[in-house]
Every structure is written in structure tokens, then in C-alpha cells.
Specification:
Elements lengths: L2 H14 L2 H13 L4 H21 L5 H19 L11 E6 L3 H16 L3 E6 L4 H11 L3 E5 L6 H14 L6 E5 L2 H4 L3 H4 L4 E3 L2 H10 L13 H22 L10
Parallel strand pairs: 1-2, 1-3, 3-4, 4-5
């Protein structure tokens, strides 16, 4: 069975609320060699995005959205236990997210994937004041501060947080990465709030931290559009090269 077929069947189980069939489908695929990492990145993650997309378009009810999200999170928790773990690499990441359940699921998957790659991970979640985050970052001194799927009203606070971090001068080598949710939907938002890195999904995030291990200091203003597009194209080429080297499967899920 191909990934797209598994994804379509999985969505059917999610939206019918069939927990046992959803679980059986994924763990049968895992037993046949798909692997927990691939299931998280090619099934659980796109299912999360599909649920959000359909709900925003009023194509599913709130009840359906709640049930599907909770089944998806339950299986993400179970797959985390069977992820292949790499040795500790000494690198550190703090993960924040928007203050709702869908954003938290995406941030949890990011945290699990980074931890499996050997990173030390602190998953904070959402709803924490900037001054508390600033203090925690100063204590833990991470290589990456990740902000996943901020809600639209939260974006100005994320920009303030980045500005505070740079003005205070703590963790000057730390890179701020934004990913998922509104950052995927709003082109160039990552650069507008002066984040160092932007990724659409966990695989891209892991590739980026390998291709961009050091922070490049730039002026606190948006780049001209032409230069920004050229930089984005170069980044996509680097990501694809890393995907090829890491053996990440090329097949992708499609919108059901």
C-alpha cells in the first residue's frame, strides 16, 4: 500500500471517529516497514494540516474537528514511543507554539522528531509570557528557539519576543525558527518578524538546522522582494539536496 492510499484511509477513519481502525492502519503500516518517522511526517502531520484546512473552510463541524484532532494526537503519542533514536548530539532546542490544540500537536511532533535525532528538547507549548520565555532561554541557552503555528493575534508578540532576545543580547548565536500554521500560509511573514529560519514541516526543519548551523546576522528590515525570492529558491535547493542525502522518501500526500 502506498503512502497516499494510507493517508486517504486514515482520513476516513479520523472523520468517522474510528479510533481502533486508525490505530490498526498505522501500526500495520509500521510493521510492514513504513517506520514511525515516515508515518509522523507523511500521515500524522498532513492529516493535522488537512483537519485545520477543512475546519477553516467550514467543511467539517467542530465536533468532527475535535474528534479527528484527538485521535491524531493519540496516535502521534503512540508512534513517538517507537521512533528510532539517534545518540545524543549535544544540541539544544526550545519549542513554543500557538495557544490551541492543533498548534500544540504540531509542536509536539516537531519536539519528538528533534529528540529522536539526538537533540535535547524543552517543549514549552503556548500561552507563556515573553519575559518568562526570555528568562528560560537565558537559563537553557538553546541552539534553536522554535515557534510553531502562532495564532494570528499572537504574531505581534512573537516579533516582540525576537526583538527582546536580540536587544538583550542573550544567546547571541541562537537561531529563531518559525514553522507551520500561519507561517506557511502568509508568504514572507517569517522574514517580516525577523526570524532566522523558516520551515514548513519537521523534515524541512531538520534539514535546515543542518544546512544553516550558524546564525547570519542581518538588518532588522525586510529584504527587497527580488532578493528574497532568490534566497528562498536557493534555500529550497539546499533542502532538496539534504532530503536526497538523508534518504527522505519523495512521495507526498495529496489533499483529499
Amino acid at each position: 500500500m502506498q503512502t497516499v492510499e494510507i493517508f486517504k484511509q486514515y482520513l476516513e477513519h479520523l472523520f468517522s471517529g474510528n479510533r481502533s481502525s486508525a490505530r490498526e492502519l498505522l501500526f500495520d503500516a509500521n510493521d510492514r516497514g513504513f517506520g514511525a518517522e515516515r508515518l509522523l511526517t507523511h500521515i500524522i502531520w498532513p492529516a493535522m494540516e488537512q483537519i485545520e484546512r477543512l475546519y477553516r473552510k467550514d467543511r467539517i463541524s467542530k465536533i468532527s474537528e475535535h474528534i479527528a484532532t484527538r485521535i491524531n494526537r493519540m496516535l502521534a503519542n503512540q508512534l513517538q514511543r517507537v521512533l528510532r533514536k539517534n545518540p545524543q548530539n549535544g544540541r539544544r532546542i526550545v519549542v513554543l507554539c500557538g495557544d490551541d490544540e492543533r498548534a500544540e500537536l504540531g509542536a509536539q511532533i516537531m519536539s519528538d522528531m528533534f529528540e529522536a535525532q539526538g537533540w535535547n528538547v524543552w517543549f514549552i507549548g503556548g500561552g507563556v509570557a515573553n519575559d518568562e520565555i526570555l528568562k528560560f532561554v537565558g537559563q537553557t541557552k538553546p541552539d534553536i528557539l522554535m515557534v510553531h503555528a502562532s495564532l494570528p493575534p499572537e504574531v505581534p508578540e512573537v516579533r516582540k519576543l525576537i526583538k527582546m532576545i536580540r536587544e538583550v543580547g542573550i544567546c547571541e548565536e541562537m537561531q529563531v525558527m518559525v514553522c507551520g500554521g500561519i507561517y506557511n500560509r502568509a508568504e514572507d511573514l517569517a522574514e517580516e518578524i525577523n526570524a532566522d529560519l523558516f520551515a514548513h514541516d519537521p523534515t524541512e526543519a531538520l534539514c535546515l538546522v543542518e544546512s544553516s548551523p550558524q546564525r547570519i546576522i542581518r538588518e532588522d528590515k525586510p529584504e527587497p522582494g527580488r532578493r528574497r525570492k532568490r534566497k528562498k529558491k536557493q534555500q529550497l535547493v539546499q533542502i532538496q539536496e539534504l532530503r536526497d542525502r538523508l534518504g527522505v522518501p519523495a512521495d507526498t500526500t495529496e489533499e483529499a
